[in-house]
Write a structure and sequence with these properties.
Length: about 120
Amino acid sequence: MKRVTGLGGIFFKAKDPQALGEWYRKHLGMDVSEWGGVVFQWADDSATGTTLWSPFKESTTYFAPSTAPFMINFRVADLRALLAALRAEGCDVQDKVDDSEQGKFGWVVDPEGNKVELWEPPARQ
């Protein structure tokens, strides 16, 4: 079974996400969207896709139960199969799975307490 297929996004806490986004826009030329992040488009020999960069409010609970100020999102080929395999391997897999027009999302906590987001993009990506 194929597991991680690429980097889906980098998410991190910021004291002032809007001001920080403006700094990245001004100084690094990043195209920060109104929602506060950047969508990087890419293509390789077999697929096209996106990778997100997004600062979150410092008070976000989205990264919980992790206390880390960041969360990495990895693209996966078959979320439900991977979550089942991780559970069977004794990993700390979160019970919740989100299914939306953006794809399927699940989470696992690594041995150091970092929450890792796993994302199965919709078929069109």
